[in-house]
Amino acid sequence: MTDLAGSLIILLGAIFLFSAGLGVLRMPDAFTRIQAGTKATTLGNILVLAGLAILHPDWALKLLLVIGFVLMTNPVSSHALSRAAWLIRTPTAPSTGADALAAHEAGERLAREPDPDEDGGPPR
């Protein structure tokens, strides 16, 4: 019975990994590709590793450590890739939506620069 459960969990993980590959191929721009690849591969890898832990209980501790490593590194790597793509001004598809980071950066820039119309500006 545990063989069947472990095999089904591995199969489910493989389906998620396959859907991640399809998402990377079909998404319109770099940011959505990174998102599709990261979310599905994280879950797919965890399911495959959990299925292996069920099939081979003596490996469970090592596989749990690998699951923790995947949970820590996948989001960090996708953030680094997305940030690098944003910094080099990678174009986005029109369907991607608003660039919230650009609006945030512009707001911080305005907050740092003094307004010349206020008291600290040059006299008129």
From TrEMBL:
Keywords, alphabetical: Membrane, Transmembrane, Transmembrane helix
Region of interest called Disordered, as start-end residue ranges on this chain: 95-124
Highest taxon, organism lineage: Bacteria
GO MF annotations in UniProt: sodium:proton antiporter activity
Basic and acidic residues bias: start-end ranges: 105-114
Ranges of compositional bias, category Acidic residues: 115-124
Transmembrane segments: 6-25
Presence of the UniProt keyword Membrane in the record: yes
Name of the protein in question: Multicomponent Na+:H+ antiporter subunit G
The species this protein was found in: Camelimonas lactis
